[in-house]
Amino acid sequence: xxxxxxxxxxxxxxxxxxxxxxxxxxxxxxxxxxxxxxxxxxxxxxxxxxxxxxxxxxxxxxxxxxxxxxxxxxxxxxxxxxxxxxxxxxxxxxxxx
Length: 97
What we know:
Blueprint: H1 4-13, E1 19-23, H2 25-38, E2 54-57, E3 61-66, H3 71-75, H4 81-95
Parallel strand pairs: 1-3
Antiparallel strand pairs: 2-3
């Protein structure tokens, strides 16, 4: 994956990150692989991609999953505007004291 080292650098620079939103299953898997290398993930922990899924990663970082906002997903209705907005609304809830 060509962007893997950029993602690693992003995580290192954003040390105080509290929420990560993965847009699509590929991003979801990439975040988990890198998080496992950098912070560890408990053995046996199950992460199955689904739109609206939420998981607490080591370091108390929330991982939120969304379908990718591709033309294929939006034009077919698999991902609607309200569904997409809800992901960011949920992220804001984790960031608001």
